Give the backbone structure.
Amino acid sequence: MIIKALTIAISLSLIGFLYQFFSFIKTNKTFDKKKWRMKNLSIKSFSLNSILQTKLFKAGKIRWLMHLLVASGFLYLVIFHALDDVTSSYWFQYYQPTVDPFQFLRNLAGIFVLIGCVGFLCRRLFFFKKLKKRKIQFKGLFSILLILSIILSGFLLEAVKIISEPVFMEMVEEYSDIDEGTDLVDLKIYWEKNYNAVFNEPLLITPEKLAIGKELNENFCIDCHSPIKSAFISKSIAKALKKPSIWLNYHRIDNLLYYVHYFLCLLIIVSLPFSRLFHIFLIPVASLEKNLKKEQLDQTLGYINTATLYACTNCGFCSDVCSVFPNFLITKNINTLPHAKIESFKKLMNSAPVESKALYMLQSGNGECTYCHKCTDICPSGIDLQNLWVLLNQKLSLKGYQDNYTFINNLSLEKWAKLAPEKEKTSSTQGKTTQLADNVDSFENCIQCTICTNVCPVVEHDIDGNDYTPQQVLNLLRLGKKHLATGTRMVWNCLTCFSCQESCPQGIKVADIMIELRNNGNLRADALKLENFTKAT
Amino acid sequence: MMIQKDTDCDVLVIGAGMAGMVASARASQLGLKTIQAGNSSALVFASGLFDLLGVFPIDSGEILSKPYPAIKKLQSDQPDHPYSKANQKQIEDSFLFLIEFLDSAGLKYHLPGTCNKQILTSVGTFKPTYIVPATFLKGCDLNKVGKNLLIVDFKGLRGFSAKQAASGLGDRKEKTHTLSIDLPENKGGLNPVHLAKSFENQEFIQKLSDKILGFSKKADIVGIPAICGIQNSFEIVKELEEKTGMDIFEIPGMPPSIPGLRLKNAFEKKISDLNTLFLSNAKIVFNAMEDDNFILQAINDNFETRIKAKCVILATGRFLGKGLFAQRNNVVETIFNLPIFQPKTRDQWHQLNFFDPKGHQINQTGLETDDTFRPLDQTGEPAFENLYAAGSILAHNDFARLKSGTGVCCVSAYLAVNNFYKKSHKMRNK
Amino acid sequence: MKFAYFPGCKIPFELKEYGDSFEAIMKKLEVRLIDLPFNCCGYPSKNKNLEISVLSSIRNLALAEQQGLDLITPCKCCYGQFKHAIYFWNNRTDLRIKINKTLKNEGLSWKGETQIKHLLSFLYNDFGLLKLKHKITKPFSNEKIVVQYGCHALRPFSITGFDDPFAPKIFEALVNIIGLKNLEWSKSTECCGNPIYETNKKLSLKMLGSKLKTASETGAAYICNACTHCQIQYNFMVMEQELKKFQITPVLFTQILGKAMGLTKNELGIINTDLFNF
């Protein structure tokens, strides 16, 4: 039955793997552009990051240590303990689970994993405030708790087995030729004293009996049972279980725990392709690809390896170092930060219908990205985040979510003029602009001398696209047509080189006004988009 | 927190128009440590012509052909006029200084003789002036030039029409042709500065020359708007002459004026080379006197410069330049609050007729000074030992009607600096 | 001398050589650079939302002030942005209150003591030309060069106070000290076009073309930049057929200074070995 269960679990897991694999491939086709070039694979970064977690080491030493404890411990346990029938028994002639060094190592591995998991949980607790500020949610709780419960059930199982009289009796029957009699009692005595076993009947311990018991132990038991002190965790737990031991033995809790322990392991196998633990396979995949250099950006335009999206472990390092954190502080748009963007990107790739407003917020947040590469540098999973943000822009643009420059540029000036806000509420723009264009003092001294127009390099070179020149834009303000001014090509092509402002004989802040008009245009465009996309939902 | 810098100097020139630039240039050249504060864009309104005296007396409307005899008469009739504080040699020296300074900056002006020149303007009028840029020279006194003339304009260049300019010449024995050049790549209006920059492009010069060559049999001399390049205008005009085989001269037009921009660039570059500190767009506030020094603050948006100056040259201009400020009933001087010579009441500022031959009294307002160009206080004594005033802020000079603008700027600025220099070094004048 | 090093967002990914050469020359000049967890200076946000751009700069200043350090940056856009932010922080009470409150939540504050410096103004005003000249061990031999002043540091003078906005001379003085001959170039103070590259590529490259044409016509072999964005813009010339033809090479000031101080091409991040005949 156990084998059957195992087979089912592994099959389910494999099906899960395949399902994920195909869903990644399917979503890859969304762009349908250039193919990936083999020469961008990096075996070096793959091996360094997969085996040694070098990127995590650079990002945070303590976290790396905790992760190393969990990873190494769990890996040991999977290979040498869970699969011992095909590994340890095969490689080592003398292998038994209760034999040193395996008994010791199993306990050690278990405690490693325990410390690591507790470390993870503690971090969440201590940095709760900081994480809350960046709205980094805790995902992966299921996986950590699952692993913890496997370890704890394992320790408990071992402890309960240690104290178990029924198990002792089973062992005696199978592996020795001791019948009921003094030998048995002597062995029991020896085992009670040295192996923490607990027996129903009270035993009288004498040195002679101990000596006989020891001899019997050496004959029948010691080949497979190393001294209990190497199971340093389980033996301590066993000691603590002495009181309820009778009850535990009577109800054969050891069997129950065995099934629990086994079942939890099956659970982890089945859930592997769908839980955070999938990162074990995905991070190597993500680390296999070198992060794109600037020159390569247009070579892979459109290609996305969806598997890398799922390699994200929600560790939050990316948002920790994000250059546009202040933008998030003001706009409160969580989609400014990388850890949220990648989640949103996953939703987008799933082809599940996403709310228009959510997509707008995603486009707006992603628009703040300065492509500084800090998130990509630090990502412990080796995901090429910056490439993702470039692709995200394109994908959203194809869906009709564009930056404001394109949005306004595509409208004619007449159309834009009609989209004027009904009543200009200065309170809504206050703080967000320099407030020059609303203040008549800023531009009433303009004598329309055209010096600003004459020194403007945009006017000089942009013979096709020019609609209003700088002094004409100022004139629009004098005519009370501020909203129209915010839609002119001049305002959006302005280089902010300040030649006009420096040369103005009347000291008018021409360039500052241009920037503010663009500011106003952005605010108006954002408000319009929000209206549209909220209506559409 | 405002960043504060402390500095000191020999001369602080307040103003970056014509007078301010001449003062700054002269002071730096003399080796005085100079700081200049102001906005130099006013020069972009200048036509590039330097007037000395074009009309005198004002109500006669008589255009002068020889300025110096008229100046002598002006000095005796109007001892308050700025020219009365200089003799002919000093006036000549000041212009010589100006021309040499500009020449060292690569901007060539023609050395004056004793006569005014008549310059054809873009609107077809003739303007008397004293010194012209070298590129204007061949077009002086066109009515006396017995040559067939071609005037060129550019389609879209506002304020310049070849036909209108030509109309000023009236009927001539010689022929006057016009040519309108169409640059198809320029839709909409042409901006003078951008058009001038095209002249630095060889292909453009060739294209232009080819078009003008079409008239090589019909005309000997060509007048072109004053937009032949911003730098190296003299070389560009020469090149056009070589390519077309005709004489070429520039015609001044409406602002923004390229010859004015050339002046601005030349002054800025050379003054910077002489290590003058230029505080662009700084607002000057006078704090106090400390011993014999002026303590002032040059306030920019993001920082302040506290200046200790031995001498201040006030060249802040009139109303546009904000050296003078017109309140409801009187005019005030904006930095030192010096007394201003002005009509007693507001209704005396203007005549009813805008074109009244006498001109308007408001244009005579300004600072009165002693013989060394130091502005006076209420008692009629110099307000400060080392405060000098120069340029259009000076009283008794209706420069628009007298055609004396640049002359007064140049002479007063040059002599003001010299006077301070003489006083501080007790050296004899050259 | 110690400074907090502010590279800006563009150096790490798009112009690593500028960061490398900057750090190399600072090390040679015995100026210590400290890395702090800075955020973006706020320049890209300036025309979207004034609050964001000012908060960004002030937050960086606050981070530096915490360590008692001034900031130094090799990017002129960042420099100009910081200066603007300081101006708005000083003059807009409503903004200042909001920013101070936001910073206080993180335990940060800026009292106005820390300042921002640019590489060029630092070398010219604080370090000194004479002291710099002593560090030049391998001066150039009068090769011809023109300098791209870069708008955002130069203008508006009222905000940046960097140099004379019409007849600047800091850059030329520094370049001449290194043994190069600076030529007059009409477009030296004109914008390179980079601010609109993302939104209006055609116009941006047209401006670049005009600059390259006039610069190469002066006979100069190099255009010298001291701004990340300017250099990125000039580097586009190798990608465009129309622009490749101009016989002029854009170089970074830090690289020419580094070479003149005897640094190797590896230290200066120069990949193209033809440059300066390394």
